[in-house]
Amino acid sequence: MSVVPFGASYRPLWLGLGTGGLDLLLAVAVTSALRRHLGARRWKAVHWLAYAAWPLALFHGVGTGTDTRLPLQLWLYAGCLGAVVAGVWWRLMKAGPGRVAGRLTAAVAATAVPVVLTAFLATGPLQPGWSQRAASAAILVRGGQ
Q1: Helices within the chain (DSSP H only)
Q2: CB-based contacts of 63, cutoff 8 Å, min separation 6
Q3: End-to-end CA distance of the chain
Q4: d(CA 27, CA 1)
Q5: Residue 35: phi, psi to the nearest 5?
Q6: What is the per-residue pLDDT across 80-130, written as a single tens digit (0 to 9) for each?
Q7: Do the beta carbons of residue 15 and residue 8 sit within 8 Å?
Q8: Are 48 and 103 a contacting pair, CB within 8 Å?
Q9: What are phi and psi of 97, to 5 degrees?
Q10: Cα angle 65-70-74, degrees, rounded to a multiple of 5
Q11: Burial level of 10, CB count in 10 A (0-12/13-18/19+)?
């Protein structure tokens, strides 16, 4: 298991995304445990990182998963993607006035992630030879060493 993002020797880019997502969720969990000591404003600022952890974990799974091409796995990704996007849009619709920039950013991200994921799947993991290309991303992450 990798603790430092992008520090693994096996598929460091894809494992790094998963490690980064896990680190963000750990920050959310730790600050939730310390919420009374941090105050609501600081806790909420860190708590928003959970939204950033989700696309990192999603692309980690798609990029490093050896079973990404299986129909069941694609349906699982689609189901998770649909649930999160629906949840974000529901929350945006229920949000009160104010914080327009934050809501606009969330709306753009909730729309962009499925588009980017679909393009990535079509040009990457669903193509023959992805396993070798995913492993060669180690050269890019380590700076060509």
Answers
A1: 12-33, 35-38, 40-47, 49-64, 71-94, 100-123, 130-141
A2: 11, 13, 14, 17, 120, 124, 125, 134
A3: 22
A4: 18
A5: -55, -40
A6: 999 999 998 998 888 878 778 888 888 999 999 999 999 999 999 999 888
A7: yes
A8: no
A9: -70, 160
A10: 80
A11: exposed
Tokens representing residue 68 in the block: 């990404």
Distance of alpha carbon 4 from alpha carbon 8, whole angstroms: 8
In this prediction the pTM is: 0.82
Which is it for the CA torsion 23, 111, 89, 99, positive or negative?
A: positive
As a whole number of Å, the CA-based R_g of the chain is 17
Structure tokens at 112: 């962009």
33 and 88 in contact (C-beta within 8 Å)? no
- Structure tokens of 121? 């799947």
Q: Which residue has the tokens 């949000």?
A: 95
Residue that is written with structure tokens 């096996």 in the block: 10
